[in-house]
Structure formats: C-alpha cells, structure tokens
Amino acid sequence: MDVNKPLKTSNEMFWRLIFRSLRLRLQRVAIIFAALTVGASIVTAMAAVYFDINTKMSQELRTFGANFYIGPSHGTLLKESELKRILHHSPPGLITAASPYLYGIARSDLEKIVIMGVWFEDMPTLAPYWQITGSAIGVNFDDRNAMIGKTLAERLHLKVGDQIKLSKNAVEKHSFKIKAIVESGDATDNMLIVNLEFAQDWLEKDGLATNAFLNVKNDQGQVEQFAADLQQRYPDLEIRPIRKVSASEGQILDKIKGLMGLISLVILILATLCVNTTLIAIVGERAKEFALQKALGAKRSDIVKQIATEILIIAVCAIISGLIIGYFLAQVLGLTVFKAYIDMRLPVIPITILLSLIVAFIAVIVPTRRALDIQTANVLKGE
C-alpha cells in the first residue's frame, strides 16, 4: 500500500479547489488583480522617481546657474590660487562648475567699457540663462575672441564677426573678434567678456579676481555644510550660498518626495479597500463551499491556507505586472518632468513587493474571519 497516495490526493484536491475558485470567479478575480496591479504600478513608479529624483532634480535646478559665492571680505581682491586650493580640496564631485570673475575698465576705440574676465569652459553651467547669438567660447585660453553683452554691442554698433580694439596706451593695443552676443537680462549685457588671464594681464591684476561663483551639488543639503567648513578654514573670505537657488533645492525635493509618498499611500489605501470589498463578496458567494469543507473535516487552518494561497497567486501576478507597468510609468514621469530617463534603483523592487503583499494581507483579514465564522449547519440547511 502506498502511504504517500492520500497525501498526494490531498494536495491535488487543494490545488484543484484553488484553480477552480479562481477560474469560476474571473470577474471578481480580475477586479482584485487590477486593484493590486494599480497599487504596485504606482508604488514602483513613485519609488523609482523617489530614489532617482535627487540626481534628476539637482540637474534640473542647476540650470538656474551658480548657487555659491566666494569673495574677499574687506574690499580687496580674491587670489586665484586660493580659489584653486578650495576647488582642489573640495569633496570629489561636489562642485560641478566654478569660475573667478574679474571686472575692470578698459578703453575701446569709441568709449570706456567694462570688461569681465572669466573661465569660459564653465560658463554654460554657471550662466545657462544666457541667450547667445553666435558661438559661445569654450576654452579658457582663447584671447583672440570675446563675447559681448547685447546692450554694449548695440551701443558700439557691433555684430558677430566684427572686431573690437582695446587700447591701454599708444603702444599697447589688442583686438578681439566678436564671437557671440550675450543677452542675460543683468549687468553682463553692458560688458565685454574675455578670458580671465587676458583680463588679469590687461588690468595689471595678475593672479587676482573680484569674486568667484560656483555650482555646488545640493541634493542632500551639502551646500550649507560646505559653506560652514570653508568659512572656518578661510575666515578672511566671504563665503555663502546663493540661497534663492541652493536653499530651494532641498525644499523642493522634500515637497516632491512628500507628495509622491502621499499619492502612493492614498492609492494603496484605495487598493486595500477595493480588494477587501471584493473578497468579502467572494466569501459570501462561497459560504456553502466553505461550510461543506468544514462538514467534511476541513480545519480552520485549511480554510485560511486556501484563501491565503488564492490571494497570494493573484498578488504575485499583480506585482509582476505592476513592476513592468510602473517602470514605464516612471519613464513617462522622468521624460515629462526632468527630460531624462529614470534609473531603476535597487530598493524599488523589494519595496514594491513588500507593500503589495502588506496590502493583500490587510485586505484578506476580514474576509478570512468571515469565512471562519460561517455556521456550517445553518448554511447547509439554507438559512
């Protein structure tokens, strides 16, 4: 006699009951599946954006330009070597762009003008709001070309490709080709923008700058700590974040993260209620089935196991679908808001699985208790 045969028969009957129950109630099963899929999709999308938003949001906010100022505190000039030392000793990857700025008066053929010496290479990051006609200068050592503010260009009747000549005295002269006209909406519109080394030489201020602007990552509020550390090491300098940009980064990130968390919570609550209501209806329809199982000797644990297995099968299928749909939804959000794809970070999958299973577990508690409280005799008598 095969002692394993009753066990095998019992397992076969168990799975037959499971799949028969799912097959005969496809409409209600589809509702549960849809509710759990929506919940898993939203959690996946929001979690993916949540864990990737620091990078994406910082990139987006950095389009506002410089968010950190360094300058002399006593009306003197900033040493370029001091700025380079700050940049060299800063944490890797913290500073994304930096440039000293040196301002001074120079004489052109027509009138005295203000020149501004900068590191050209980092200006696209520090001043992304510049509206440029022509081609921006991309190398710091270019002393043959210059960029000119729109207002000054109009006053001197200059356009892209024209020459502008500076003269210090009867002997020293220097000509620039206008490579670009800049419209910034600020004082830069009245300046001639040249490379820093030329400005230092022409203004006889070798190795000096008026001030410096930096673009510092602030996705975790680092800019305040960085400013405090630098102020301790360089007490003779004025060091401060440009708060209209840097302070807003952390605040906006926190608000967006809070909003995403709230949306996810509301969706999960609605999914729980939907699954709970549908399961209660299913238990009501299956009252005679559960009563008959009890009459044939089924234990309370058998009923719990059956209901739990059914909802687990639905939940697993919904989680898989939700992860796939959520990933594509995250890409839509990323492209719409940040114009960039969202990277799926490692914590997203376990968070989605865990929260979806919690929703399914909470939703099944009340229906399971109702199934266990069924009065076998009364139900089978039709009462």
Q: Quick summary of this structure?
A:
This protein has 12 helices and 12 strands. The chain is α+β, with helices and mostly antiparallel strands and 383 residues long.
Task: Give a verbal description of the structure.
The protein is α+β, with helices and mostly antiparallel strands and 383 residues long. It has twelve helices and twelve strands. Strands 1, 3, 4, 5, 6, 7, 8, 9, 11 and 12 form a ten-stranded mixed beta sheet that branches. A two-stranded antiparallel ribbon has the order 2-10. The longest helix is centred in the last third of the chain and has 43 residues. The chain is rod-shaped, with a radius of gyration of 34 Å.
The total count of helices amounts to 12
**Cα Rg:** 34 Å
What overall form do the CA principal axes indicate?
rod-shaped
Residue share in β-strands: 15-25%
Biggest sheet: strands, sense, closure? 10 strands, mixed
> Span from first to last CA?
43 Å
The number of strands is 12
Helix and strand element order? HHEEHEEHEEHEEEHEEHEHHHHH
The helix content is 55-70%
Structural class: alpha+beta
Descriptive labels:
383 residues, alpha+beta, 10-stranded mixed beta sheet, two-stranded antiparallel sheet, 12 helices, 12 strands, 57% helix
What is the element layout, followed by pairings?
Blueprint: H1 4-24, H2 26-61, E1 68-72, E2 78-79, H3 80-89, E3 95-107, E4 112-118, H4 123-126, E5 131-134, E6 145-149, H5 150-156, E7 163-167, E8 173-183, E9 191-195, H6 196-202, E10 208-209, E11 211-216, H7 222-233, E12 237-241, H8 243-285, H9 287-295, H10 300-338, H11 348-372, H12 376-380
Parallel strand pairs: 4-9, 6-8
Antiparallel strand pairs: 1-11, 1-12, 2-10, 3-4, 3-11, 5-8, 6-9, 7-8
